[in-house]
Amino acid sequence: MPKRSGFAALWASQATSNTADGILAAAAPLLVASITRDPVIVAGMTVVQFLPWLVFTLPAGALTDRMDRRKLLVAGNLLRALGFALLAASLAAGWQSVWLLYAAVFVAGTAETIVDNAALTVPPRLVPRAQLERANGRLFATQSVVNTFVGPPIGSVLMAVAATLAFFTSAGLFAVAAAAALLLPQLRPTVHEPDPTGAGEAPPRSSVLADIAAGWGHFWRHRLLRRVALISASFNFFGTATGAVLVLLATGPLGVPEAWYGLFIAVPAAGAILGSLVAERVIPWIGGGPVMWAAALVPAASFAVLGLSTNLALVLVGMFLAAVATACNQIVVSTLRQAAVPDALLGRVTAAYRLIVLGAVPFGGLAGGVLASAFGLQPTFVIAAVGLALAAVLLMPGVTTAALRRAELD
């Protein structure tokens, strides 16, 4: 039974926390750059940001399937609020340290693994299957808007006034996100909900490690979901490889002034928003299989344009279309997970999926830097285009609209 008020609470909570994330996306790098110009220490922010995803993703999935997901959303956002409030208080007291920032970002990243994993499992409990594409589209579009167009400009302005103001504001927004999550209905794992017939007994509790193993095993045995995860990981690998050096290409061969770089990267962000909003119509129209093919081949073509042309208009059109295709694909794979995986396993399977997909990100960034150093900027984009196209040819066969639908019915 759909719970529209419940979805509105989830939407509000996610929008508020994503706004805080956007503020921090500008504020945290600006703070560390104001403390030190050491590139190793500055780059350490990326390591600290992604380390929790590699370490805590699978345990977060187990928690999602063992606890009330509403409580996880509330607790995770409160933990983030506390971490950044303490950082802001330390800055106000004159204790300016990279290590304090690292600690706050690490704590927030750990909480984010719990919040994001839980949030991705909630929509199927609030809306019927027929509305999942629309619900996921609204959530992802909102995330793109506030993370790109709302949060970072606010963060930059607040940092210009006072660093403490930026971090206190983020802390306050995370607290509001926790309050919005309190408006959700109870979201206890299905396996632990009382049997309305009064028959049967609750299954015995297993250990957390056993829960993680069960979730990973279910994910790995699901051939289609496993293949989709590997495809998405290849998207992320080559996308991050090019994204890591995009600023050098834009401000170099493409001739984009540094002051205009924010507008340059806003073009694909606008494409991602559009893709999220039109996905509910595009996916039923052409099918999930063609959408996934487009999500591989359109970005590959965009990388090729970036590597072979310096026509800025052509480059921006390619980046925009690639972002539209990628956003539509994100809706396809999220809906597949939510519809094909039993609710009692959804948190752990989502965590296993995200471990594969997000685990490719730091390796892609490293590869992009190495390739650019060895072969140059534009050849790196050509290599990424060929690599992504080959990955699609090798991994996409069997990923059809019919196969996606059958997986949802199994």
* Mean pLDDT, all residues: 84
Sheet with the most strands, sense and barrel status:
none
Radius of gyration: 21 Å
Amount of helix:
over 70%
Helix and strand pattern: HHHHHHHHHHHHHHHH
The stretches of 5 or more residues where confidence is low (pLDDT under 50) are: 192-202
What is the end-to-end distance?
Answer: 21 Å
Alpha-beta classification: mainly alpha
What's the total number of strands? 0
How large is the share of residues in beta strands?
Answer: under 5%
Describe the fold and architecture.
There is one protein chain. With 410 residues, the chain is mainly alpha-helical. The longest helix has 33 residues. It is globular.
Which characteristics define this entry?
single chain, 410 residues, mainly alpha
Helix and strand arrangement:
Elements: H1 4-35, H2 39-66, H3 69-92, H4 98-121, H5 123-126, H6 132-161, H7 163-181, H8 208-221, H9 223-243, H10 246-251, H11 261-286, H12 288-308, H13 312-340, H14 343-375, H15 377-395, H16 401-409
Helix pairs in contact: 1-4, 1-6, 1-7, 2-4, 2-8, 2-14, 3-4, 3-7, 4-14, 6-7, 6-11, 6-13, 8-14, 9-12, 9-14, 9-15, 11-12, 11-13, 12-13, 12-15, 13-16, 14-15
